[in-house]
Amino acid sequence: MTIKQNFGAIMLDIAGTKLFDYEREIINHPNTGAVILFARNYENPQQITDLIQNIRAARKGDILIAVDQEGGRVQRFQNGFTRLPAAALYENESEIAEIAGWLMASELLAVGVDFSFAPVLDVDCGVSTIIGNRSFSKDAQKVSQLAGEFSQGMRSAGMSATGKHFPGHGAVALDSHLTLPIDERDLSEIRAKDLQPFQELIAQGLEGIMPAHVLYPKIDTQPAGFSSFWIQKILREELSFDGVVFSDDLSMEGAAGVGDFAERANIALQAGCDMVLVCNNPTAAEQVLNALPIENNADRERRLQKMRGKFSLTREQLQATQKWKQAAFLVQDFVRRYS
User: Fold this and answer.
1) Annotated catalytic residue, options 177, 186, 299, 333
2) Active-site residue, from 62, 248, 249, 274
3) Which of 173, 187, 270, 324 has its CA 20 to 30 A from that of 5?
4) How far is CA 252 from the centre of its chain?
5) Average pLDDT, the chain
């Protein structure tokens, strides 16, 4: 009798637009829990639908499919998908945020994606080029409002939301993909501004959070994604967050100082992450898969189950609805007028 596997603790990626045999093996590893897709994996809606079906078929158990589909400069699937605005543009017409959240989520669900890593909850402090217009606003209350509306749109489509990058990436100039940014502010400053959108959206039922690969040396000696202070004390205890904590990609340079890949994964999980991402480095992903103990975690399983997409319509069925036609028109017109 084949025993169905639960979610593992690792999210990994694949090389291209089709699945290789060795990728089928790693997808079915007990420690695999999710696959994240990138622009290199996408050609058109039918191709990505087929690829996702093949990924799910390769797994003898639970698996989640994710993508970064924020809008603006971070939209992995474009040809055949509605072009979404950068988050900063929603301040021009705030009512579009919920419509865009619904549209983004419904189009992804229609091809088989469970969730997008969105919305960005960072408050733009005017110094971060990697965040910049990915942030909804320079005002924390406005970020809370617009991100909350965007998230509500996602949920109404059947998709859980994931806020990033906790406790805030908007006040550092450096890009954590390339180096470890250092934020010299103290906790009171961060509480007064950056934590507000996270607190507001957690109260609204936020299902997932991704910590930043940013070091806050006046608060802790580890970057946020490897810090039990940030994840356990602030996020879990102070903010009462009971959703999934996803690490940011352990292949980013902002994580390099923590140790080798297996050490990064272990430290992140011990700090309180439910799932760690290892992307763009197949050798590292395999190392982490084999280094971590194989274990079932009831809390992780419960949280990850809530990230499942609620699939109801095919792409053809979705595009035949009046709601999709109206939402696509409104968002495309918005982008045309403000981009």
Assistant:
1) 177
2) 248
3) 270
4) 15
5) 94
